[in-house]
Amino acid sequence: MTTPEPKREDEHPELVERNARTGLWLFAIYCVIYGGFVGLSAFCPDIIGAKPFGGINLAVIYGFALIGLALALALVYLAFCRRPHAKSGE
Q1: Residue 89 — left, alpha, or beta (φ > 0 → left; ψ -120 to 50 → alpha)?
Q2: Per residue, what are the HEC states of the chain?
Q3: By residue range, what is the domain housing residue 77?
């Protein structure tokens, strides 16, 4: 006796659509924050070169924050997409 195969994501287009929309929103958030980094670097090099914490310039701090933000957003995406979706008509 075999166990039934679990349903794949492509069998739930509404789930795929919701996950894609979530991913695009999180990507847009990241792009805006990254754009701030690029904008500061291009147009305000004196601000991005400031050393607010123990001799480490803002560019390094902002860069590490971007890496941390990417990981945090990935975890948010994972948590959101693992939530059971509302079942309509099942």
Answers
A1: left
A2: CCCCCCCCHHHCHHHHHHHHHHHHHHHHHHHHHHHHHHHHHHHCHHHHCCCCECCECHHHHHHHHHHHHHHHHHHHHHHHHHCCCCCCCC
A3: 57-83
Task: Examine residue 89 and state whether it is found in any structural domain, yes or no.
Answer: no
pTM: 0.76
Could you tell me the sign of the dihedral formed by the alpha carbons of 21, 25, 26, 27, in that order?
positive
Query: What is the Cα–Cα distance from 15 to 25, expressed in whole angstroms?
Result: 15
pLDDT in tens, the chain (90 residues): 677 766 665 568 888 899 999 999 999 999 999 999 999 999 999 999 999 888 899 999 999 999 999 999 999 999 998 866 555 544
The verdict on residue 65 lying in a domain is: yes
